[in-house]
Design a protein that fits this description.
By secondary structure, this protein is an alpha/beta fold. Helices cover 41% and strands 20% of the residues. The protein has 15 helices and 20 strands. The strands form 5 sheets. The chain has a 7-stranded mixed β-sheet with strand order 12-13-14-11-10-16-17, sandwiched between helices. Helix 9 links the parallel strand 10 and strand 11.
């Protein structure tokens, strides 16, 4: 029962799926590589028309797809609705901008004519996570398909219906069969697919362990890979910041998607002059959160996606507290059939505890105090991760130093870290490499070909 829809609200098994056989995988690979030969020659207008139709389908069926996400992985329904709209926006972004992103670039050289052109690679394998089951996939497929590639999706095993729905959307939008296919396979089957010579590149969003495995295989096969892995993003609040606004944003920055977000603010690094006030404001807001059925639009926090995630966050909190951390709110598992963990705030985090070293993938805020900007940045950089960072200050000198010295793929000033189709997204250090979104994301999976003509 490795591929199944299991409602995280109550543990009910709703539907199970049999992994594809070797022959079924071969059939999909053959279909994909054969379709690529025709699809790569289609016009940008043709591809864009289909992608725009996919955006319309998403919006017209917003509630249906949002409910599917919520039932499979526990996302609050109001956040699931927003996710569907964001998927439609990324479809439109690439449909409208692909021409500009892929236009050949001419350069004066000793040739009569010399330029760079951008050509599709072929089959791109996408290994995607469960936490944003539609958005993660659409932000891959939109630039990849517009560039003329074809896609194979190995989605997380707990969101199989989302995976099948996405393939159905693209077929309904008019994309030819084989341009985008879902592979309902187990993790153990990924290596064989990735090593197949017909697969030209891979993108993965997931854990460090999964990233290292995929990167190793791709490296052995000399195939391009893009990795977006874990994060332990800092949320730095200095003493000249708007504390009330920072505390308000902090709630969503930490608890969106039930706290199961790579770019969630996980470590709140507070200047000692404002730490007490910020802590008080954050605690007050946590007390007013509603925990419950994620299909209820009034619910702020739903269940975690799987029992293993609940077990992991429980063990991390317990270990950190045993080592000396203080619990301001939460910290005790809720007795229920679902995978519920309460919104939790920990302070006085001990050195070398899980709270200092590990990514917390759940609704747990970790509070730290510092004396100045240098201490804040040193603490921000003290983990193996480097995905995103947020800093709250009105001082331009502080901003310049933070942008220069924080080790991360993005720095957001006076706002929460988020992905935007107009901006490249990705990390550094153990948070991965390569970029998604914007022009940089589209160029990850094309052959950047130099042409020189005498």
């Amino acid at each position: 029962m490795t591929i199944a829809t299991i409602n995280p609200l109550n543990g009910e098994i709703l539907q199970t799926f049999t992994p594809l056989t070797s022959q079924e995988i071969e059939n999909k690979l053959s279909l994909g590589v054969n379709e690529f030969q025709d699809y790569r020659l289609t016009s940008l207008e043709f591809r864009g028309e289909k992608l725009l139709k996919a955006a319309v389908i998403l919006e017209e069926n917003q509630e249906k797809y949002a409910q599917l996400m919520t039932i499979e992985m526990g996302k609050p329904i109001k956040q699931a609705m927003t996710e569907i709209n964001k998927c439609a926006s990324v479809c439109r972004f690439y449909a409208e901008n692909a021409q500009k992103f892929l236009t050949p670039k001419y350069t004066d050289t000793d040739a009569t004519k010399s330029y760079v052109t951008y050509q599709p690679l072929g089959i791109i394998l996408a290994v995607m996570p469960w936490n944003f089951p539609f958005w993660q996939v659409f932000r891959f497929l939109s630039p990849a398909l517009m560039a003329g590639n074809v896609g194979l999706l190995k989605h997380a095993s707990n969101v199989p219906q989302c995976a099948l729905a996405i393939e159905s959307i693209l077929l309904s939008a008019g994309f030819p069969e084989g341009v985008f296919q879902t592979l309902l396979i187990e993790s153990s089957q990924v290596e064989k697919v990735l090593r197949d010579t017909r697969v030209k590149a891979v993108t993965l969003t997931g854990s460090e362990l999964a990233g290292k495995s995929v990167a190793s295989i791709a490296g052995q096969e000399l195939k391009k890979s893009v990795l977006e892995l874990g994060g332990s993003d800092p949320f730095i609040v200095l003493d000249d910041a708007n504390i009330e606004e920072a505390a308000q944003v902090a709630v969503n920055a930490r608890l969106s998607n039930n706290g199961q977000t790579c770019i969630a603010a996980k470590r709140f690094i507070l200047h000692h002059n404002i730490a007490d006030k910020f802590q008080e404001l954050l605690l007050e807001k946590y007390r007013n959160l509603t925990l419950g059925d994620p299909l209820n639009p009034n619910t702020d926090i739903g269940p975690l996606a799987t029992p293993n995630i609940l077990k992991d966050i429980t063990n991390q909190v317990n270990k950190t507290v045993e080592m000396g951390a203080k619990v301001l709110i939460g910290g005790e598992i809720i007795e229920s059939k679902g995978n519920f963990y309460p919104p939790t705030i920990l302070t006085d985090i001990p050195v070398n505890s899980p709270g200092m070293r590990e990514e917390f993938f759940g609704p747990v805020a970790l509070l730290f105090r510092v004396n100045n900007l240098k201490e804040a940045i040193d603490l921000a950089n003290s983990t193996i991760f480097g995905l995103g960072a947020s800093i709250w200050t009105k001082n331009e000198d502080n901003i310049e130093i933070a942008v220069r010295d924080i080790e991360s793929g993005s720095v957001f000033i006076n706002g929460l870290v988020k992905s935007d189709p107009r901006l490249p997204f990705g990390g550094t250090k153990q948070s991965g490499y390569g970029r998604e979104l914007s022009i940089e994301g589209m160029h990850e999976f094309v052959n950047i070909k130099t042409v020189w003509q005498k």
